[in-house]
């Protein structure tokens, strides 16, 4: 043991000063929220490229390729129509049940797939996280972008279904855009939230399918929203009707269809949707940012 | 003596502890034991702590290439990951670094379903390059990796590559950017002799571009060829730090004992 460390412990306190005087930063320091946001913005090309890569990788091995983006929502709607529209008659007194059902299935499916993919966005890219330095929020955000692409495809299908079932084109259709925008921000916040949660507590991944299923039944996807008011009252009804997915679905149905019965008035729905979007979008982002330095561990 | 040189990495009495989940002793993960833990609020026995680096201090300067040697499990890779900011320093002063150190390891996987070209693009963007820079650098990266030497492999998915080929591509991507601090963990070991020579040249070039390179390797030859300074780490403690030849001599007598 000839030489030990060049810098021995007797120079200990000066090492910190030396680091500071040369402008070195502490490894593993958490950047401030504005700093992190700017950093994330400078990685926007990476986020887009990663989202594109994910779509190509998932469709690359299929023969039909992009056609699946249109086929998947169609098949999905067909299956639900067969079960709930034909076999179990949950139509009740909805005029245009096919369009009503499809709006619910597609809008809920949008959030559902963001949650499913978002929950794996950290854990399945751990090797990349350990190798390269990019703001980790890029991954859940890219997941959300991928699903926006799928959502646009399913909206094309939905609009075709709505038109074929005899709904007129009205000015109200323009409301579809802000509704989807709000939902997209909500979804991104949710993706960020589950990404961190599941990278910390992997056990929760086992529960996600059940949580999503309960959530779907509580969102009036498969039956009219009036179903709840007929069965539950008071705080229980208030709880179900404050469900953000129910609100987003209602907004889309309201935008595209005539004579739909809403849970509450449309302005109130918009207000609730805006609150949910701000809460989950910002909250999810902050929650994810707080854990930024821990994602490569484990 | 060191004052006129510019430090790029400073470790100040750094202790690194990492936690391993799921390595359970038999009998500790029965439903009954789990229930007991939940009721009593005790920490899971499945979490074990490993004190991998115990109070390491050193200063690395601009333009240096430093070899990290030591027997398996001596804490070399852990130290690199802490320098890169991927593992937190548990206690002690901490580790300070210029810019953002980049860790280049053998398991630095990109997306295996995508072609080599797309991976180059993605990797460069992930390192913070602009799309224009990527376009400019991509052909050079593919050429350096040599994956196109036997036909057009760069347009095939990476899952079809041999392990040596994908390691070469990963190294080429990481080496394409100027890093203030580049940390290389056994990454040069997988390529063939021809590529090894080329990549060692690249490491020397990177150093000339005024960066600092850390190299973990079990190949004494590649340490000798690229690093003039070495740090010998044993059980998380620095045993020696100095000119490579001296340190390697000491290390050899220790290993052959």
From TrEMBL, chain A:
Q: Which residues form the ABC transmembrane type-2 domain?
A: 64-291
Where, by residue number, does the polypeptide cross the bilayer? 64-85, 97-118, 139-163, 175-198, 210-229, 269-288
> Any idea which UniProt keywords this protein has?
Cell inner membrane, Cell membrane, Membrane, Transmembrane, Transmembrane helix, Transport
Q: How does it sit in the membrane?
A: Multi-pass membrane protein
Predominant place of localization:
membrane
Q: Where in the cell is it found?
A: Cell inner membrane; Cell membrane
Listed InterPro entries: ABC2_TM, ABC2_TM_bact-type
Q: Which family does it belong to?
A: Belongs to the ABC-2 integral membrane protein family.
Q: What is this protein called?
A: Transport permease protein
Q: Which organism is it from?
A: Paractinoplanes pyxinae
Please spell out the taxonomic lineage of the organism that makes this protein: Bacteria, Bacillati, Actinomycetota, Actinomycetes, Micromonosporales
UniProtKB/TrEMBL annotation, chain B:
Gene3D superfamilies registered for this protein in UniProt:
P-loop containing nucleotide triphosphate hydrolases
InterPro entries linked: AAA+_ATPase, ABC_transporter-like_ATP-bd, ABC_transporter-like_CS, ABC_transpr_TagH-like, Bact_Polysacc_Export_ATP-bd, P-loop_NTPase
Q: Name one Pfam family in it.
A: ABC_tran
Q: Which family does it belong to?
A: Belongs to the ABC transporter superfamily.
What name goes with this protein? ABC transporter ATP-binding protein
Keyword set includes Lipid biosynthesis: no
**MF GO annotations:** ATP binding
PANTHER family recorded for this chain? TEICHOIC ACIDS EXPORT ATP-BINDING PROTEIN TAGH
Keyword Transport: yes or no? Answer: yes
Residues forming the ABC transporter domain are: 35-257
Q: What keywords would UniProt list here?
A: ATP-binding, Nucleotide-binding, Transport
Superkingdom: Bacteria
